[in-house]
Amino acid sequence: MPPGDRESRTDSLLAGILVAIFLLQSFCASLGKSAVFDEPPHIASGLSYLVTRVFHANLQHPPLLKEMSALSLMLAGIPWPKTAMAARLTEGGPASKNLEWPIGIGILQSNGPDRVLFWARLPFILLAGLLGALIFIWGRELVGRQAALFALFLYAFDPTVIAHSYLVTTDVGMAACTVLFLFLLWRYLQAPSRLRLVWCGLALGAVLGSKFSALALLPVGAVLLLTGLWRKGEAPQPGSARKKDKKVSAPPVVFKAGAAFLAIVGIAVVAIEALYLFSSDPFLYLNGLRLVNADHGAAYNNYLHGVLGSRSLSYFAIAYLLKEPLAAVLLAGMGCVVLLRNRSVPLLVKLFLLLPPAVLFVGYTLGADQYGVRYIIPALPFAFLAGGVGLAALLGTRKTWARVLAGLLCVWTVVEAAGIYPDHLSYFNEMACVLEGSDQIGLDGGSRCGPLWLDDSNVDWGQGLKQLRTWLQARGETRAIRLFYFGSLPPETYGLKYTSVSAGELARGPEPGLYVLSAHIVARGPALGATWLRRLRPTAIVGHAFYVYDIPNKS
């Protein structure tokens, strides 16, 4: 067997192992987590689309990913409810507004939350596995086999990606569709053909059908298409003897790129209409676009490092620097420097690697609500590819210290993924604790200091109810807990006995009793007057999501 074939087979085997490890982490973590805030409405909406063929629910998100979940639920025999509330949702009108929330909760409760979540989440786990495979396959063509394998390694052990990989939400799904579209566009530019153009259009339809923020990829695709065809026109054809001073004529290239782009967009429009089941209303997509963030509170204050206030341009940059493993951040920075300085890397490769994440990141910084690092997940695959380049550069040098450093960074990445398991959503790296006290740093990085920096889906999104139930049962706790829960699925779904407490009650000071507080309120509570949350150390932290305070009776 030629050495090249042997290396390729070895790389493919290692890539398969890494994808399998990722899938195992995602699947097993999913089994232990309750529904997060946004899952019930997505579950109900998808089922309503496929069963009733009516699109009234949750139009502020396109249908593709919800329909994937619904198809899995239908195959598992989980039905659309035959209730008056479900009928009102199907009929539409003002009376149907936001009914997908209680209907989704009802579907979970009546069919068993674990059963519903298993089948609803399964397509998302598989889609996230496909994303890992695409990072490797496309990465080999962009940055070489070694860097591509390292990129997949960073992906497979990334807490943020694992945390959201199984959720019935839109972020990892959009990331997968984004990479698929750009990969197919890359392949088209390598050898243009009508069939490849059709695949590009279908993939664009998929990414636009996964999340409305994917519209930012339209100008990105146009630039990449024009640049790729232009550079292809500059390259000498086999057997030709082009003169050095002969230039490619601009109008034909621009016309060809424009025609290809319009064809791709046209196919994408048809694909989107298919996702809406060719509804009688051809403007459903545009109607949904106008509803983006319609269910977000306009008066909601953003939280950043102890301060409640208006949006900050640094929010997502800080979230990335704190929520991604430090090894991945350092390697991504190193890889970007290597890519920019290496003149042997073609311009088109640099554009494919750097332009999409830059546009997405800037778009989210300027336009997205600041609820969590999850919004920038579609930009992360490109950071992993850059990180793979950085790791390959370290191992490619003959210097012993560089190779030792590369090994330590890999070990560090794996240890932290294991240390935070299965609570990946709450992960923070060590930088979160640098200003607060290094004694809080552990195998889970700086996760215990996370609520000092960020709130919402960065720390707790309602995913810890099952773990809380297990913890209370293990202690034989019979007291009704005083619960501040940040989620949509009622805690009694898992048999929890509790009394709800509000932020105002916490601000007045704790009464004697067992308080179980979401990390979300532990983060923003002090800014709302509950300063005791900074003074008292919790009795326990359950699933990195619930902070337990056992307040004794006053003597």
Features:
555 residues; 5-stranded mixed β-sheet; 5% strand
Task: Describe this entry's structure for a reader.
With 555 residues, the chain is mainly alpha-helical. It has a domain at 456-551. Helices cover 58% and strands 5% of the residues. The chain has helices at 3-31, 39-52, 64-75, 84-91, 100-111, 113-143, 145-156, 159-165, 171-190, 194-208, 217-234, 250-275, 284-289, 315-323, 326-341, 347-367, 380-396, 400-420, 431-434, 465-475, 503-507, 519-524, 532-535, and strands at 302-304, 307-309, 481-484, 498-500, 513-518, 540-542, 546-551. Strands 4-3-5-7-6 form a five-stranded mixed β-sheet. Helix 7 (145-156) packs across helix 17.
Summary?
The protein is mainly α and 555 residues long. Helix content is 58%, strand content 5%. A hairpin with a 2-residue loop joins strand 1 and strand 2.
